[in-house]
Amino acid sequence: MAFDYDLFVIGGGSGGVRAARLAAAEAGAQVGLAEEYRMGGTCVIRGCVPKKLMVFASGYAGAMQDARAYGWDVAAGGFDWAAFRTRLDAELDRLEGIYRGNLQKAGVEIFDTRAVLADAHTVRLADGTEKTARHILVATGGRPFVPEFPGSEHVITSNEVFRFEALPKRILIVGGGYIACEFACILSGLGVKVTQYYRGAQILRGFDEEARGHIAGAMCDQGIGLRLGCNVQRIDRVADGLWVKATDGHDGVYDAVLYATGRVPNTAGLGLEDLGIGLKGNGAVEVDGYSQTAVPSIYAVGDVTDRINLTPVAIREGAAFVETVFKGNPTRADHELVPGAVFTRPEFGTVGLSEEEARARGGVEVYATAFRPMQSGFSGREDRVLMKLILCAHTRRVLGCHIVADHAGEMIQLAAIAIRMGATKDDFDRTVAVHPTMAEELVTLKAPVRTW
Ligand SMILES: Cc1cc2nc3c(=O)[nH]c(=O)nc-3n(C[C@H](O)[C@H](O)[C@H](O)COP(=O)(O)OP(=O)(O)OC[C@H]3O[C@@H](n4cnc5c(N)ncnc54)[C@H](O)[C@@H]3O)c2cc1C
């Protein structure tokens, strides 16, 4: 049977774009791709990229305070959100153009429309046109989830944060995951009065507990009103904003309420179940290690599969799919020892097992140190850095590394290479320190603080 395409990709985000481009440019495949919103997907348009630019913007208030301590005669005016947003929009337009251009250069045919599955080899576009393909890749990502409660229609999500007409003066952020915590620090750095509710006992569930406590403490020190064990009961619009009543009796009026309480995969109405493709409880597509669904011609990568929801993982899954299907080289998407960063202030870089995960296995040693870094110590800030290594007591292999410090995201990338290569504590110790840096503490940790 002749198909219109060798591959049709639904979704022009991190995973879909990478797969489409590699299949076309490196394997000579005929590729079509449908994107219903903007090319580049969540990462480029309303995730990693605009968020990181806001992280940079928010860092200048502290930097200017530090500068004065270092002898600079600087006076900060206010933060001009409108000026920043104009530049941000232009940058996102530029990046979107690059993504589109790269696909076109590779010969991918782009459809700026929604697509759904019609059968195992057919996608249907919004205008009813059908396109056939030998293989279909579902890469539709995810979207923010807001639970229903009285007043839930008043809240915004991370999608809208980048579109504020004016920065709110007071914001309530609901959630304790990395997106909630990052926006709490960003907005607080930009001068917004931030209150954060999280229903659990500590923010950043799933990460190393000591690091979670360290970050929560730093956030409170910055003036973020963090309320744990607390959820929203109801929201009412009042004359001067949104009145929020909390489950712990707390109440307050805010200019905006941002919900960052999780994300759900974009599978509704895609036609997956009609084809017999399994969905997990939250709607994520069920796939095997090669990202193949129960229908052999249909694969899925990225957040829509809810494995590890990070851009580099979606990209790797897209590339592994192309290796497997178009290059005759069956390749499993690799989810081992994936490093990550949380762009709070200070940042958190993490790879491998947390102390709690390691403790459950037993036979582990924990090395850790917390100290005031030289740069902010000099300027009188109270920041503290945390450096932590988790070791297998028998092999001395480093099983996990957790860093809370400015630029921890940069540090953890390099530590992750060593850990991925199987580095032991002795390898770390043999490595000469780079002085004076924060990271040198990683190679000078002398004795375990705990053994399990
Ligand atoms: C606020 C925020 C911050 C983040 N920060 C980071 C970070 O710092 N580091 C990191 O690694 N990850 C980060 N992420 C996660 C990262 O953005 C995602 O893991 C990544 O974008 C997933 O890529 P994807 O290709 O699976 O999906 P997406 O990038 O979401 O792309 C899916 C695309 O499919 C389109 N689409 C959906 N349905 C259809 C349809 N039926 N037809 C046509 N098109 C469709 C959507 O419009 C979208 O463009 C962040 C996410 C958010 C929300």
Automatic annotation (TrEMBL):
**Catalytic activity, per the record?**
2 glutathione + NADP(+) = glutathione disulfide + NADPH + H(+)
Please report any disulfide bonds recorded for this protein chain, giving both cysteine positions.
C43-C48
Q: Which cofactor does it need?
A: FAD
* Oxidoreductase in keyword set: yes
EC number(s) given by UniProt: 1.8.1.7
* Catalytic residues of the enzyme: H435
> For this UniProt entry, which residues form the secretion signal?
none
- Give the cofactor binding note: Binds 1 FAD per subunit.
Give the matching Gene3D superfamilies: 3.30.390.30, FAD/NAD(P)-binding domain (3.50.50.60)
EC category name: oxidoreductase
Does Disulfide bond show up as a keyword for this record?
yes
Q: Where does FAD bind?
A: K52, D303
| One GO MF term attached to the UniProt entry | glutathione-disulfide reductase (NADPH) activity
NCBIfam families per the record? gluta_reduc_2 (TIGR01424), PRK06116.1 (NF004776)
- Family (UniProt): Belongs to the class-I pyridine nucleotide-disulfide oxidoreductase family.
The name this protein goes by in its record: Glutathione reductase
Which source organism?
Answer: Rhodovulum steppense
